[in-house]
Design a protein that fits this description.
three-stranded mixed beta sheet; single chain; alpha+beta; 4 domains; 452 residues; seven-stranded mixed beta sheet
């Protein structure tokens, strides 16, 4: 032990060592010293290991620190149920204070039921823990009711008066995590799968935004929508495709606005009537409308108490709104416009028109060739993009993505696209064809539109 103490007392500065090499050199000295001890004592060959472990225990304190890469430390501190199959440190601490460290693994549903019924003097902590634990259990067990419960708890945490009254609540990382838990859990909880088209490919997934009542672990969730919200540009929004599990390719930037709500891409069905015909005249039926669906839970505190949660479904097209009125002020909507644009162009027929339009001059095109991606907005300046030979409007995707997501441009200009068969001799250069279509000026084109 005297020798072990002598090694432990070595001064790294005296030995010319830095902080990073001290641990390694210290271990080497221990190993050497352990060998000397066993050799003098005539012990077996494996004895140095026993001696080394004994000496190490004598030097290490029961509580202390070790150096770690800051990236590893940050990753550990910023872990949540969204990034791992384990809850955040906030939730683990709450469980630890109550002696429930292992209860979730043994019987998660019993723990969630007890935690739901028990209020604390810091109830926002309990709500966030319920949101995380319900999400982990719902996602791992593919249980819709727990995913929906996670969204309800996360919403209750975000609107909690206790949380909003805290000092600097915006810097609490749980605020962002709770918004993401609401967004992701609600998307997964309302998602349905159907058979693929023609029986080929993976199942078709969509988020159902219909009036219905769904089961919760502690009661029920009644959802209601307003039919007029499903009308857009002479079309009816019909099928809502979730964007949370898509990776974008072919575009430099994926623009996304962090906020509240489910970012979706909506397919459309034409409405009947002359007004609808006029409104959608230049919007192709293959468009995918980027929207955000927001479920506003009414009287959430009462609903958690009596088990009857009521949710009002709100739809917000990205060209109409980017924020929503929430509890205590205006809240940004979660937007994912780049993913919606890329999804609309994935396998789209427009790519086939590039060679076909070059080889066949008489090939039919959409309308007179002038295309809009959303209804005209009064006061915005039209910018018409014309493609080149053996090309198509899809080649402007990069520019569209940048212009529509530029903070200074997206509220001032509106991108229009011009499409034509590039083999037509009179359309060389292509601007000639575009000029013929728009020769009466964009103002006359707008005459038959209903600005919004």
């Amino acid at each position: 032990m005297h020798l072990a103490a002598r090694v432990c007392q070595v001064d790294p500065e005296v030995d010319g060592l830095n902080d990073h090499s001290w641990a390694d050199v210290h271990t080497m000295k221990l190993c050497k010293l352990a060998g000397e001890i066993t050799e003098r004592a005539g012990l077996p060959r494996f004895a140095p290991l026993v001696v080394l472990l004994t000496m190490t225990g004598a030097c290490a304190t029961p509580v202390g620190v070790t150096r770690e890469d800051p990236k590893v430390v940050y990753r550990t501190l910023s872990q949540s149920a969204l990034s791992a199959d384990a809850p955040s440190a906030f939730t683990e601490q709450l469980l630890g204070r109550r002696g429930l460290d292992e209860a979730f693994e043994k019987d998660p549903e019993a723990l969630l039921s007890d935690l739901h019924r028990t209020r604390t003097n810091r109830d926002s902590d309990r709500l966030f823990a319920l949101a995380e634990l319900s999400f982990i259990h719902g996602r791992g067990g593919k249980k819709r009711e727990y995913l929906l419960a996670s969204a309800v708890y996360a919403y209750a945490f975000l609107v909690s008066r206790e949380r909003r009254a805290e000092m600097m609540p915006a810097v609490d990382p749980r605020v962002r995590w709770a918004a993401d838990l609401y967004n992701v859990a609600l998307t997964l909880g309302l998602m349905e799968s159907s058979a693929p088209v023609n029986g080929l490919g993976p199942p078709r997934e969509e988020v159902l935004l219909t009036d219905r009542t769904l089961e919760l672990p502690f009661g029920s969730l009644q959802l209601q929508n307003r039919p007029e919200q499903f009308l857009w540009g002479g079309y009816r929004l019909t099928r809502f495709i979730p964007l949370i599990d898509y990776k974008v390719r072919g575009l430099r930037n994926r623009y996304r606005q962090p906020g509240i709500g489910m970012p979706l891409a909506a397919e459309v069905t034409p409405l009947d009537g002359p007004d609808a015909d006029r409104a959608r005249k230049r919007i192709p039926p293959t468009v995918k409308v980027p929207i955000t669906a927001f479920v506003r839970f009414e009287n959430i505190a009462e609903g958690l108490a009596d088990g009857h949660i009521r949710g009002a479904i709100e739809l917000h097209a990205i060209d109409e709104a980017t924020t929503v009125q929430g509890e205590g002020g205006v809240v940004p909507l979660e937007l994912d416009p780049t993913a919606a644009l890329a999804l609309a162009l994935e396998g789209a027929p427009v790519w086939d028109t590039e060679l076909a339009g070059f080889l066949r001059a008489g090939r039919s095109i959409f309308g007179d060739g002038l295309i809009m991606m959303h209804p005209y907005r009064r006061g915005r300046i039209p910018v018409i993009l014309v493609h080149g030979t053996a090309s198509s409007p899809a080649r402007w995707a990069e520019i569209i993505n940048e212009v529509q997501n530029d903070p200074a441009l997206r509220t001032k200009v509106q991108v229009w696209l011009f499409m034509y068969n590039t083999s037509i001799p009179s359309c060389t250069p292509p601007t000639v064809c575009a000029a013929r279509c728009t020769r009466s000026s964009p103002i006359s084109i707008l005459t038959g539109m209903t600005p919004r």
